[in-house]
Input
Amino acid sequence: MDTTTISVSTALPRLDPTAVAARRRVVVTGGAGFLGSHLCEALLRRGDEVVCVDDLSTGRRENLDGFFGDPAFAFVQVDVSEPFVVDGEVDAVAHLASPASPPDYHRLPLETLAVGSRGTENALKLAVAHGARFVLASTSEVYGDPLVHPQTEDYWGNVNSVGPRSVYDEAKRFAEALAAAYARTEAADVGIVRIFNTYGPRMRPEDGRVVSSFVVQALNGDPLTIYGDGSQTRSFCYVDDLVRGLVAMLASAEPGPVNLGNPTERTVRELAELVLTITGSDSSVDHQPLPVDDPTRRRPDIGRADTALGWAPTVDAEEGLRRTVAWFAARPRAVAVAGSA
Ligand code: NAD
Ligand code: UDP
Output
């Protein structure tokens, strides 16, 4: 199999010597996605150079519009499930490439397994070749439908390995196992974060996740699609908080796994009510079937994030949703949201 060589120049435009001493060149896989684009932005803001590697399968070039003029930023369209190397210095690799929304990974099952396995190994090899820090964006989905609540990092999870969600859950569990094995056998500087449901600007309006769906439906005056009776819970984290945690993990030597999420837990029905209140919408509610293996509850224990990274979220749901609603309201959103099947 051919190896793609990524040869892009990034340059630090700033002459401040302290910034030069502290700056790193960071490869962000999945950098054109929702979280990845916010991470690229945060890294550029702290003075790093960023090489964003993305195949645009679920990400969008327009997420990067604000950075294309920045000489410290480069974008390359590459599928990281195929072998690739990056020329020049690499100080850190943040591996975020993967479909993440349930409708996306149901549509792309083999690609999801490929990027969790081969893609993760390619990104790990890149980090090892450069002696770079490697951070894996894992997920609360490794806990499956959890039997321990709230979820601590030492809980091993309850995942159906052959159900429709397994392409994502098991890909991430394999990715964690691979990263841990590279840390043991290759002395790779690995950090694993388990991200809980995160929302905010730059979610795709049609991505089918609950926050983007409810916000778009409420703004359009369409019924909010609650799957099941809406008693299942999630704990929603605003994107700025989450990205602050990723940046802290990149800067630390913490191996993890570390949960990153907002521990305030809500039912899906409560989320629908909050979105209706914040948007002032009079949309009705439309109950649809609960997807197979939909986890009944989710709440992170974030004690380790606090101890290891000094991290805790600061944006509450009311404020985060207000910012998210304002962002969606300013954009075209005439889309049908994916169903629950
Ligand atoms: P997203 O779909 O917006 O972003 C994923 C990005 O990865 C996209 O830009 C996509 O084009 C890219 N990508 C996918 N396969 C690729 C491949 N083979 N090669 C190169 N690029 C590829 O999703 P997101 O919400 O930004 O999630 C980012 C990461 O965080 C994912 O790894 C996801 O599993 C993890 N995560 C996210 C959440 C969340 O709530 N947003 C929760 C848990 C974990
Ligand atoms: N959900 C819903 N309506 C939607 C989309 C999702 O009721 O339009 C539910 C879904 O069944 C799940 C929760 O909201 O219980 C969170 O779904 P999401 O896809 O955002 O994230 P995940 O299932 O990966 O936690």
